[in-house]
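#struct-pred

JT: dropping the chains for the assembly here, can someone run the whole complex?
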Amino acid sequence: MDWLTPQEWQAVTLSLRVSLWAVAASLPLGIFVAYALARWRFPGHALLNGVVHLPLILPPVVTGYLLLLGFGRRGIFGAPLAEWFGIVFAFRWTGAALAAAVMAFPLMVRTIRLSIEAVDPRLEQAASTLGAGRLATFATVTLPLILPGVIAGSIIAFAKAMGEFGATITFVSNIPGATQTLPTAIYSELQVPGGEAQAARLVMVAIGIALAALLASEWLGRAVARRISGS
Amino acid sequence: MTLSVALKQSFEDFSLNLAFTAGPGVTALFGRSGAGKTTVVNAVAGLLRPDHGRISVDERLLLDTAEGVFLPPYRRRVGYVFQDARLFPHLSVGGNLDYGRRFAPRAERPSPARVDEVVALLGIGALLDRRPGALSGGERQRVALGRAILSAPRLLLLDEPLAALDEARKSEILPYLEGLRDLGLPILYVSHSAAEIARLASHVVMLEAGRITAAGPAEAVLSDPASAGALGRETGALIHARVEAQDSDGLARLATPAGPIWVARPDLPPGAQVRLRILAQEVMLATEAPKGISALNVLMGQIDHIGEEADGSVLVRLRLGEEAAILSRITARSRRALDLAPGRHVYAILKSVSIAEVSRG
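RK: done, full complex below.
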């Protein structure tokens, strides 16, 4: 598409890649945390709930700063991860994905938790009397029933990840071709005098992706709900 | 197979303390709501972990708080039919039926032929592709029953499976429940309906406020005046009988330990074993042989118990021969007028007799 410059095009594809990875990689943990918060009572329940929600209430710059401390080259987690697994976050697209995942996590967990709380635990009891262990019960009863919630949580997390700005730019900066995402690209273009017209094209792309995600979520959610109720 | 249960559990508003055993066949847990019936069943299923208790099926220990044994529900092999069915809404009827079967040990997993057999027994063959949401209450309970049976359980728990259904649906399902007795499993049947119990149970455990007030064969427990408090208007004797002959005018002659009794049931084949339920309020007493009355069944017996009930009525137990007894509920005024006392011989006039259960052959 030649109505976007190669650099803009890069920002769009990078944003999509960052957001998809952010959602895909955090989804299993998100489901687990949502389940724990919804179904288990344990010491530290309130603490876990607070930590999960922290990115929602902290200024994004602060979250980005904390990520820098934790997952930078010399960070508490960043250094061993780079040394043992060769996973580097600092100033890479992976870092942008991490920042997006952390920022979107509370929204994902909240949505999935609500759907888990809507599942009648007596159905899970019935499964256990029929011989299904905890994991089997989750896989065969709980998960199919919360699928609409999981889809909704993923879409909302995806949308949040697409729009993430503050934590991303703080943590991995705004390097064209490496860490420049759709929002930071719009921001950069706006920094240039008279850049509004150029930014408008990216803004349209952003609106288009958001709308498409919304429609996809509606359609998927309805299809899954239909499959569950069988009507 | 025998189920042994001993439980002790304190709740905020009441405490449970009981012990009983249940062999193959239907053992009814009977009592008012709040008596602790569902608590017992949930403890047996492992859905509730009691403070103190021991539960075993034959030698297999499901729970022993003294030894620190607690088998989780999914390892107990207990088929539980809930009052509200609890079918999985995202699975078809076939998927629900297959659910427990998938988790049964390979060696005991019901064969496809056995599945067909159970489906036919429960009359749910036409529903296999439907979703639970599209089923009637009675159909749902039958599917839940099938799902439990096909999990190859060592024990069946039925928690008021008929309570949520109207009379028509109840009579639709009762025959299927009667069929369960042939499985040879211990079946715990929770109910607060004396009619259901008279029809299904071989043994009865009466519960009141977490304690067992009576336990034993259904005939003995239901015919015991001590049970009247819990049974109320449903108080009545249960008597075994055999169909001796069909008279030409449509009456069946039954041989009972209390002597011959006639019932208007031309459909009963001679030789069939039946169980008679004679409600206490359907029995009149007379001190002399009544003449010129329409009642067919008049039996003579000896009073061996008279007790005043909480509602002011008087419950009289009459011995009829060696093994049988019936109950009669009369007013305190009648008791005084007839000067009834233990030891007196009186006539019992049965206004109606219902057949609670039939096993042919």
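JT: nice. The radius of gyration of chain A is 20 Å. The CA atoms of residues 16 and 162 of chain A lie 7 Å apart.
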